[in-house]
Amino acid sequence: MRRALPAALRARDKAEVSPLRTTLAALDNAEAVPVEDTAPRGLAPEQSPVGAGANEAARHELSEDDAVEVVKRKWPNDWMPRRS
Hints:
43% of the residues lie in helices and 0% in strands. The protein is an all-alpha fold. It is elongated, with a radius of gyration of 18 Å.
């Protein structure tokens, strides 16, 4: 899907671009790590994390089955490709 999106954009195929973007966003959201419930910090620089990537967290890696479930939830009544 990630390789199909640039081709659809170049072809200006709106009917293909929209579902690709929506599906890829759903997959990206499913891989996101929830924000931890931490005490709120102030806006002062000394209260902020320091350094490149200080707030970064590893994303969840979806299995193929997890990815299929995400897509099924996003597009429950649409055609689903068969897995080989």
